[in-house]
Amino acid sequence: MKIDADAAALLAAIPDTPRHVEARSCLIAGTADLLYWQDQPFAYALINRNTGTLFVHGAPRDEVILEWAKDAAKLEMELVGDEAHAGALKALLPGWEYYPAILFRLAGAVAAPGEGETVWLSLNDIRTVKMPEVVRDEILVGAVDGRVACSLEKGRPVSFCYAGAITEALFDIGIDTLAGFRRKGHARRAAALMISDMSARGLAPVWGAVEENIASIRVAEKLGFEPVDSCNVFALPD
Fold first, then answer.
1. Nearby residues of 15 by Cβ (< 8 Å), 6 or more positions away
2. Are 24 and 167 within 8 A, CB to CB?
């Protein structure tokens, strides 16, 4: 896929690290709308066209953030920025909720998740599985490689793990477990299947979780992930 000159220049400058995995994935896939970037000091802002999320690194440009926020407020979009500039973003987004988040990398081989049945499903399969539409939409939009690792309970898919972003060396884990089936090891089983498969392809997993999502953090730790960085997420109140 052809990348325009500005996006190609940013792609050459942006490191392939957990903090930048989603932004870099958008640039590689050609699904990024680049609002600005500069080399010194390093800073950028780009939108993932698939999700509407704005990724900001470095000191934000006020006018760009304010213009994006006009549409974001109507479309329930999110902003993800680096922790060092959280104060500046808070000032630009009054009334938005702020969620500090932790980024994890796998310290070694993924820990064995315990017994249980897992399968792979395509996105077409996901369209037929019984689940809340909000979960289905999140998976259909987020699964960038078109397949989903699932943990089953009595033959029913109840936990869904997918690659939400892919770069040359990393992939970002997205995971949803249906209400009523949590705390039963399903998320660990689905994630372990995805991690084992992607690792065989030379891709290392990144796990992100807001600090208040204790359940997600515990799953990451049980699988052998360790914190390596942080970021922040801004969203309008429900």
1. none
2. yes
d(CA 56, CA 147): 28
Q: Which residues contact 154 (CB under 8 A, 6 or more apart)?
A: none
Identity (one letter) of the amino acid at 154?
Answer: K
Instruction: Work out the number of other CB atoms within 10 angstroms of the CB of residue 74.
Output: 9
Alpha helices in 76-150 (DSSP H): 86-92, 123-126, 133-142
Q: Mutual orientation of helices 21-29 and 5-13 as an angle, nearest 10°?
A: 150
Q: Is the pLDDT of residue 3 over 80?
A: no
Separation CA 185–CA 190 (nearest Å): 9
Nearest of 169, 153, 171, 170 to residue 161 by alpha carbon: 171
What global pTM score does this model have? Answer: 0.92
